[in-house]
């Protein structure tokens, strides 16, 4: 433990999606993952002095560059961004130039796949598109290697994890709402949603978790990984 009581071997992964007002064309579930700019900046301020918090962004919305990037740079923070290759250049999403801008600013760029579909039960052609083609397209846009992946919907099983290992991804991010071990291959995260507040982030994410909750979450993750 350090002087703040944090375990240096434990990472708290926080995942954002969109920031600001979501497009009316998005389905209701996707809209629920958009947070206000005020909440977003308040959460950044809350975690800015916590080096054990790891920030990530899924889906590749335009707000990654328009809102998130300047806010991160203003606070001296870095993050990993996971765009969807199949949505690059679409209205409301990052362009290839935007992906390149993130990488040039010192952010890490990973892959969220091609079409935001579950990676469970993919046929061979879909798996090729999601794990290989998407990675290549994103890497070309970023002008940087793509080594990390984030599972769409946080959905995975042992077949998915085996495929990601075979494809050489060095880290895989999920949405299992539990702590991660620093440097571990599988990195669970806590997603921030529209109904969250700074207070809920403090109590439900940043505060030490009860032993029973930790054990329950670890058991659930093991079941997912081996089903």
Description:
- Strands 1, 4, 5, 6, 9 and 11 form a six-stranded mixed β-sheet that branches.
- Mean pLDDT is 93; it is low at 1-5.
- By secondary structure, the protein is of the alpha/beta class.
- The chain has a single domain (10-226), classed as Glycoside hydrolase/deacetylase (TIM Barrel, Alpha-Beta Barrel).
- Helices cover 39% and strands 16% of the residues.
- It is globular.
- It contains eight helices and eleven strands.
Task: Kindly summarize this structure in a few lines.
This protein is α/β, with parallel strands linked by helices and 227 residues long. The protein has eight helices and eleven strands.
């Amino acid at each position: 433990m350090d002087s703040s009581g944090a375990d240096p071997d434990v990472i708290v992964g926080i995942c954002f999606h969109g920031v600001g007002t979501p497009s009316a064309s998005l389905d209701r579930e996707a809209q629920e993952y958009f947070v206000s700019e005020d909440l977003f900046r308040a959460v950044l301020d809350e975690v800015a002095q916590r080096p054990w918090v790891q920030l990530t962004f899924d889906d590749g919305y335009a707000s990654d560059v328009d809102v998130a990037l300047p806010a991160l740079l203003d606070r001296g923070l870095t993050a990993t961004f996971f765009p969807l290759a199949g949505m690059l250049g679409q209205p409301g999403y990052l362009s290839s130039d935007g992906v390149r801008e993130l990488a040039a600013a010192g952010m890490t760029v990973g892959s969220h796949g091609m079409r935001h579909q579950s990676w469970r039960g993919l046929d061979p052609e879909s798996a090729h598109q999601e794990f290989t083609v998407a990675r290549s397209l994103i890497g070309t846009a970023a002008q940087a290697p793509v080594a990390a992946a984030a599972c769409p919907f946080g959905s995975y099983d042992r077949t998915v994890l085996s495929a990601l290992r075979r494809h050489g991804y060095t880290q895989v991010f999920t949405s299992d709402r539990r702590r991660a071990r620093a440097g571990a291959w599988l990195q669970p995260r806590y997603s921030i949603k529209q109904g969250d507040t700074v207070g809920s982030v403090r109590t439900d994410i940043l505060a030490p978790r009860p032993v029973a909750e930790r054990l329950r979450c670890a058991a659930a993750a093991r079941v997912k990984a081996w089903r």
